[in-house]
Design brief:
Blueprint lengths: L2 H30 L2 E3 L1 H5 L8 E8 L5 E2 L4 E7 L4 E7 L11 E8 L5 E8 L8 H9 L14 H4 L1
Parallel strand pairs: 1-2, 5-7
Antiparallel strand pairs: 2-4, 2-6, 3-4, 4-5, 6-7
Length: about 160
């Protein structure tokens, strides 16, 4: 085997190993990627049941119901659509009606979102960027608000 052929074989083997490693990394990442959806996207049948994603919006006033064994039901809204959410576990201390929330979980066939993680906002003006963008698209965003914030009058 000539030197030129050996070099070509070495480069081809290294390329194949690199391609297999890249394929394994991308395959592992596919299971951990979670997309953000708004209640309007979920209600518009743009999300298939059984899909894992993050749902963000505001906790609808009057929708919070606590059940036995730390089970909680509430609704998440973006003022356009509302999605019912079921969660079992302890809620964050800052969780309350009318405030921003991001829940991660799975959409059940009946249209109920079964959350396994609930994250609450950190102060009274915080709004997840995706929710703020959804409010802008609906024309409910108050101009002059800082990025990531929304006026309370804009969401009521």
């Amino acid at each position: 085997m000539t030197r030129k052929r050996r070099r070509f074989v070495l480069i081809a083997v290294c390329g194949a190993v690199l391609a297999v490693a890249l394929g394994l990394v991308l395959s592992a990442m596919r299971d951990s990627i979670v997309f953000f959806r708004s209640p309007t996207e979920v209600a518009g049948d743009r999300v298939a049941p059984g899909t894992r994603f993050r749902l963000g919006g505001l906790v609808k006033d009057g929708s919070l119901r606590r059940g036995p064994d730390e089970s909680v039901e509430f609704a998440v809204t973006d003022t356009g659509s509302t999605v019912p959410v079921r969660y079992r576990g302890l809620l964050p201390d800052l969780f309350r009606e009318g405030q921003g929330v991001v829940a991660e979980g799975v959409l059940e066939p009946g249209g109920v979102f079964r959350a396994d993680t609930v994250l609450a906002k950190h102060d009274e003006t915080y709004m997840p960027r995706e929710v703020a963008d959804a409010l802008k698209a609906q024309g409910r965003w108050k101009e002059g608000a800082a990025p990531g914030t929304v006026s309370q009058t804009a969401v009521k």
